[in-house]
């Protein structure tokens, strides 16, 4: 159906309709003129011949004629036609006779008879007689040596079968000429459509190329018509878009580099600050209450700042395309248990995990640890207990095997307006909450770590209340490992 509405089809149909209308109009006009000329010529010939024969034979008529004389005159008039198609009737007052005995001259109308009675000129009329057209001619004649109207009238009927054959042949010729005209119109339409659509197809291909990221795509500009103007405008637009994107990419690259450089430069002073705060924490019990409170605040903020710097460095590796997978075949259930135990969450989180060595897969252990830690930490901070971590296997075929990790909490859930944004960087659902424990990058880092594994992560609300985060990781990931081969330019340390 879309092809039937395409520009090519519409052009061909338009050309065909114009050609058909032109051929029909031309044919109709040509037919009318030819038919009129043919019938006029035939009519003039018959009338001239009738007059000539009447002038030649009228002097031989004995006045006043009787019926036998009228029959002889009618037969003599009909015999002058070489084709033998004339039918003649001669009348004198109340007497009449025809060239063929029993001919009732049904084609002769009262109107034409009356016209002959009232007009000295020759009158004629075309009438339909059965399956053909007949020419009926009437005229008054003069006796030899007579003056004025003698009362003798001659009527002639000529079947125009030959003329009708000429007209039928003309119609056939016009019909035969119409078909080639339509075929030629369609061919011309196809050629015109090809010429018109060639730059349109080129424009479509160039637009797709631009959409795929090849911003250096340009069109060849030929001619000076509207399509050439369109191609020229496209090239100008593409050039402006390429320049804008290049500028934006440069700004983005500089911003990423700045964040990475700042994060890297902050690590050294933060390490020193962390060492100092560790010492101050040990001596906080011997300090006065106000100083001890200030020391603990500095220590907490230093830890948060260190976590933020680590998260910024981690996200900058993803932006730079330097995040590498170091795959290893591990026991996934045991890996999840170690993640919970390392953070002291074993007693805070319920688990539904398969037995040891029941589910193994090739993943990056460090990145899997970051994914699970971020999701569980998010559930404990923003949800409510009980929090459940569930691990299962999905996929019937070996090539489709994947590990499904679910983290469920019993909190209020995630507002519908927030769900589409939970994995965005620095996004916080509560605009009034200016300070939180997290950096706002945890879920974004989780999504990136899942993505480099070739998996997926999604967030939803449970019907019974609470949120659920679902991670699916393919268990066979050699292609991802090869595609991400290489060292980690920024080290391998990360915090959830």
Q: Keywords, please?
A:
5-stranded mixed beta sheet; alpha+beta; Beta-Lactamase; 5-stranded antiparallel beta sheet; disordered C terminus; 12 strands; Helix Hairpins; Heat Shock Protein 90; 496 residues; single chain; 3 domains
Q: Can you walk me through this structure?
A:
This protein has a 5-stranded antiparallel β-sheet with strand order 2-1-5-4-3, with helices on both faces. A 5-stranded mixed β-sheet has the order 7-9-10-12-11. 52% of the residues lie in helices and 16% in strands. The two termini are 54 Å apart. Helix 1 (7-57) runs antiparallel to helix 4 (161-211), helix 6 packs parallel to helix 9 (442-452) and helix 8 (365-382) packs antiparallel against helix 9. It has 496 residues and is α+β, with helices and mostly antiparallel strands. Strand 11 and strand 12 (467-474) form a beta hairpin. Its EC number is 2.7.13.3.
Brief summary:
With 496 residues, the chain is α+β, with helices and mostly antiparallel strands. It has helices spanning 7-57, 67-79, 110-118, 161-211, 226-283, 289-319, 332-342, 365-382, 442-452, 478-483, and strands spanning 86-92, 95-98, 123-129, 132-141, 152-159, 328-331, 349-352, 360-363, 387-394, 402-408, 456-461, 467-474.
